[in-house]
Design goal:
mainly alpha; 2 domains
């Protein structure tokens, strides 16, 4: 019984220590992500500026990235595949300053964002990711559903944003037919 009372008395201390350790781990993960993305951006810079002499395409073509990948993998281990080096290169080309995303988003987010050629669209998804705390799966889903384009062409931007955050809810089957996207898909006029 005495041990149980001591455990109850210690609970606030245990909770405080647990919170401190959890916060430290979160901060550490954020720092690691930030340093990692800055490193990948710098590698992309080296590839573009030094190996490619500032050109977007290397004179050697894909052979350069393949050879570089092989050498880096031998020296540094996994993580330097040809596609990953290409992503680093594209990251550098898409973002003049890596600070704009390195503290906010993960490398996985960045790899999705650099697939978008239009800078305005990429910036939109980047800001939404940060503001709404989207995970990578949500980012992909929003990109696949063309949220940016739907917002750009919509008359009711607030409703589209609400849909993006909450998802579509149907109260009865007729609601599906009344939905403007369904009408548009079916080629029916919107009233």
């Amino acid at each position: 019984m005495h041990d149980l009372e001591q455990t109850d008395m210690l609970q606030p201390l245990v909770n405080e220590i647990e919170t401190t350790v959890s916060n430290a781990k979160k901060e550490l993960a954020e720092k690691v992500n930030s340093v990692m993305t800055e490193t990948y951006w710098t590698i992309g810079k080296y590839i573009v500026e030094f190996e490619q002499d500032g050109n977007i395409k290397a004179a050697y073509g894909s052979k350069l990235l393949t050879t570089l990948s092989h050498q880096l993998t031998l020296r540094l281990g996994r993580g330097y595949s040809r596609p990953n080096l290409n992503n680093m290169r594209k990251f550098y080309l898409c973002y003049e300053n890596c600070q704009t995303v390195s503290d906010k988003l993960t490398w996985s987010h960045i790899c999705e964002l650099i697939k978008i050629d239009d800078a305005l669209e990429r910036s939109f998804y980047e800001k939404e990711c940060y503001k709404e705390k989207w995970d990578v799966r949500t980012l992909r889903r929003q990109m696949d559903s063309a949220l940016f384009l739907r917002l750009a062409t919509s008359r009711d931007k607030e409703k589209i944003l609400a849909l993006a955050h909450e998802g579509i809810t149907y109260e009865k089957p007729e609601d599906i037919i009344k939905d403007t996207y369904t009408l548009e898909f079916l080629g029916l006029p919107v009233k």
